[in-house]
Design goal:
Elements: H1 3-22, H2 33-50, H3 53-56, H4 59-68, H5 74-91, H6 106-116, H7 121-169, H8 178-229, H9 234-242, H10 247-259
């Protein structure tokens, strides 16, 4: 579970709740079934019309990935690849086949297996790059659905507000209904804003951040596998892969290594 995502969502909900109570409002007054139907039903209908049903049914998995996925550590990936390079240099690349059961990253496993099998380096690079592009495309599709929901929810909130205003104005002969009618009309806008700014927007941005992290790690893996396949010195492999890390992280690792 990503603590940052859960904590952020909790703080956002807590802030809204505190705003209601500190403002002297009644939380039950914010629950309106017709408004819920307009915003949630309308947003769901727009998503169904915008994307294939097979992708909509996987929306929950995208949300869970945004909340529960753990960040991948590129430093650990580099450490593993350098160790594999040392073994390949010392015992031969075929020795890496015995380490495959210990490898936790399936992407590394596929690359190492192709290198051990003597696959052409250009073909290895092409296959791994193609898989990386497919990953990027899947993540982009997931974020697109969240962004679309975040765009339609406020729109349907505004539609609900307009409907409420129309119904309110049709009952202008009873002044006692104007205040409650206006309150109900504005609730739909509130629902749409909450969905867009508390759920779909933050989760979409987190998914994009996770995508960038995963793409970085897989790019490091591709460079590492290609270096191992070409028989580079482990120090050269480490130098190549360290260039993908920010300067601050590189400096910290060098100081840690020097201290050790």
């Amino acid at each position: 579970m990503d603590i940052g995502t859960v904590a952020g969502l909790f703080v956002a909900v807590l802030a809204l709740t505190m705003g209601i109570f500190l403002g002297g409002g009644n939380p039950l007054a914010l629950i309106d079934l017709p408004s819920l139907a307009v915003v949630f039903g309308g947003t769901l209908g727009a998503l169904l019309a915008s994307f294939p049903l097979a992708r909509i049914t996987k929306l929950h998995a995208i949300v869970l990935k945004s909340v529960f996925s753990k960040p991948v550590n590129p430093v650990q990936t580099i450490t593993d690849l350098v160790r594999y390079a040392e073994i390949a240099r010392r015992e031969g690349i075929l020795a890496l086949e015995n380490l495959v059961p210990q490898m936790k990253d399936d992407f590394i496993v596929r690359g190492i297996k192709m290198a051990v099998d003597g696959t052409d380096p250009e073909l290895i690079n092409q296959i791994m790059e193609t898989e990386l592009e497919a990953l990027i495309d899947r993540h982009a599709q997931g974020k697109q659905m969240l962004d679309t929901a975040g765009r339609y929810a406020p729109a349907f909130g505004m539609i609900g507000t307009l409907l409420g205003l129309i119904f309110m104005l049709s009952n202008m002969d009873d002044p006692s209904k104007i205040g409650p009618g206006m309150a109900v009309a504005l609730i739909t806008t509130l629902y749409g804003a909450i969905i867009a700014n508390t759920i779909t927007g933050p989760l979409g941005d987190k998914l994009q951040a996770r995508d960038a992290e995963e793409v970085l790690v897989k790019t490091i893996v591709i460079a590492g596998v290609m270096a191992i396949q070409s028989g580079d010195n482990p120090r050269v492999v480490e130098s190549k892969l360290m260039t993908y890390l920010p300067p601050g992280v590189r400096s910290a690792l060098e100081l840690k290594k020097a201290a050790a």
